[in-house]
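Friendly challenge for the regulars: who can give me the structure tokens for this chain first? No prize, just bragging rights.
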Amino acid sequence: YPYSRMAQEGLWLPVAAVECEYKKPARYDDVLVIRSWVEKLKAATIIMGYEIINKETGETCVKGTSKHAITTPKLVPVSLKKHNPELYALILAAMEKPRTRVTAPAEN
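First reply, four minutes later:
Bragging rights claimed.
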């Protein structure tokens, strides 16, 4: 569900808070996997989770979250369930799916 479509439908997700925890360094030429998911969905708030993983080692380099208000373009909070029930249902369905984990390749 592209953010551009949300904007066309009159929904914005301004950032209210961000947390970031650096666990391991990433270096030039490392191949990184970036994962994101919805951790929590409330009436007018959504919390996203993030993880950056080194594809070769499977080690987590960074973990974080961002909290977003669900608003109109004039920054008036709205209930996503009322404003866009289709998107609300899609997010809930995505939250029920298990997240896959990147693992390091087996050693020969």
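The chain is about 20% helix and 35% strand. The beta strands are 15-22, 32-41, 45-54, 60-69. Your move, everyone else.
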